[in-house]
Amino acid sequence: MPASALSSSMQDYLKVIWTTQEWDDSPVTSRALAERFGVSPSTVSEALKKLAAAGLVDHERYGTASLTDAGRAAALAMVRRHRLVETFLVDYLGYAWDEVHDEAEVLEHAVSDDFVERLSARLGHPEFDPHGDPIPTADGRLPALDARPLVDVEAPARLRVVRVSDEDPALLRHLVDLGMTLGVTLRLVERHDFAGTLAVELDGTQRDLGHVAAAAIFVAPA
């Protein structure tokens, strides 16, 4: 079943299940989905029952949810829509990277499959969105991204920022203030694990970065 044939709610559930496991391969629970959507576990259970009946998820009552092959294809189609819309908003309408997520959450449900493909062509078929997230191709393939969370890197190391989680707009604005945007090179000087910080040098200035922020930043060797 193509993503465009699903309700907005079903599209959202599939996309969230996939993106949750994109960052963390732990099982996705009904409880986690309820917290993510701000609804009761029983509401989530009913939604997952409908998705299971449509052959899109495998689900244990009040347990974990996983995507079937058909569910994964539909989820990737929604992720493609979302990330292409974010790219358009930044490249053509002058949005900042902390402003586009919520706009894309709305617009991704309003556009047709044909619009998405025309948008991709106009943008030059980008492989990554403004946050460095890989954009699935029309047939569901993901471009390779060799990166790891900054919080997991051992010091010392010279690194390049290649991806940042867009979950928290305030964090994105904070990183802009620090000059820590996509493509910049930084040096991880040392870890202060007991204090929950990393000493990072950027443009000759050293500062401490908390583990929460460092977990949202993905880096590759520079």
From TrEMBL:
Residues 6-68 form the HTH dtxR-type domain. It holds the Pfam family Fe_dep_repr_C. InterPro entries: ArsR-like_HTH, DtxR_MntR_Metal-Reg, Fe-transptr_FeoA-like, Fe_dep_repressor, Fe_dep_repressor_sf, FeoA_core_dom, HTH_DTXR, Iron_dep_repressor. It is found in: Cytoplasm. SUPFAM superfamilies: C-terminal domain of transcriptional repressors, Iron-dependent repressor protein, dimerization domain, Winged helix' DNA-binding domain. One of its GO terms (biological process) is negative regulation of DNA-templated transcription. This is Manganese transport regulator.
